[in-house]
Amino acid sequence: MANADSNSAAHPLANPGYGKRATPYERPAGPDDWRHLQPREAAIAAYIDRLPDGSDISVKTLAKQLPYGQCALRTALNRIQRVGHLRRGRECLAGRWITRTWWSRTARDDAWWAAFERGDVPREKPPPTRSRAYILLAALGRENSALSLSHADCRALAPLLEEWFAREATDGDVLRALTDGLPSPVHHPAGLVRNRLTTKIPPEPLRREPPPLRLLECAKCGAPSYAETLTGGECGTCRGAPASPPRPAPAVSAARVRAYAEAIRAHARNRP
């Protein structure tokens, strides 16, 4: 992975609006993220995961950056998709349908991707003993040694930081608020952090944007499909699944039905 590590910093970006798009509510990166994958697939997944949003993760571009051919990469990406890290589809922005490639460090099942398509993704509860807030507080000392906190400090301050995350603050927002303009010396790190978490907390979001219009696509034929009809990212026809009795259609909004119809028409126009 030495080559992949060095190449990731220089990986090309896709055209504006395209490329890799990370999904929300990811858990922090850890050593066990890719152990369920074969070595080659794990190396490719780890490389993609390190790339920033907007990176070009097409097979052709990945083949120029990694020591694998396009055929091997296509096979690996199909496997990565089937276990739930990758989906392709379209999203409507300002009246235009944009091709998207969504990436999730956490392997998601088909039900999660269906909720994501609807814009209805539940926040996952972090482990109680090492929450996202605890991990960030424990890492403060690596950002600035003057803010090294004890285990007890991190446990006590984590609820204050959780409120920042509830207000949609990012890790970067928190780090800037806690580390910018520190006095010298810092006599009481825990007290300073508590004060800043209390006095600098961002305002509550004024309004929430309506959920985006999204449609996932079959990874093999590219046909737009409701996520509820995809298994491992593939439609029933491409999986060779036998015909099954019709099931009740999921309740969808009129806007989503119109979006689905327009995506099907666009797909039909673009077929060779």
Helix content: 40-55%
The tally of strands reads 5
Looking across the biggest beta sheet, what order are the strands in?
A: 1-3-2-4-5
Label the structural class: alpha+beta
Distance between the termini: 39 Å
Shape: globular
- Mean pLDDT figure: 84
Verbal overview:
The structure is a single chain. A 5-stranded mixed sheet has the order 1-3-2-4-5. Residues 245-249 have low confidence and may be disordered. The chain is globular. It has 272 residues and is an alpha+beta fold. 42% of the residues lie in helices and 10% in strands.
Brief summary:
This protein is of the alpha+beta class.
Which structural traits does this protein have?
272 residues; 2 domains; five-stranded mixed β-sheet; 12 helices; 10% strand
Topology:
Layout lengths: L1 H7 L11 E3 L16 H12 L8 H7 L4 H13 L3 E8 L2 E8 L6 H8 L14 H7 L1 H4 L7 H16 L4 H9 L9 H11 L13 E5 L6 E2 L10 H4 L14 H17 L2
Parallel strand pairs: 1-3
Antiparallel strand pairs: 2-3, 2-4, 4-5
Helix pairs in contact: 2-4, 6-8, 8-10
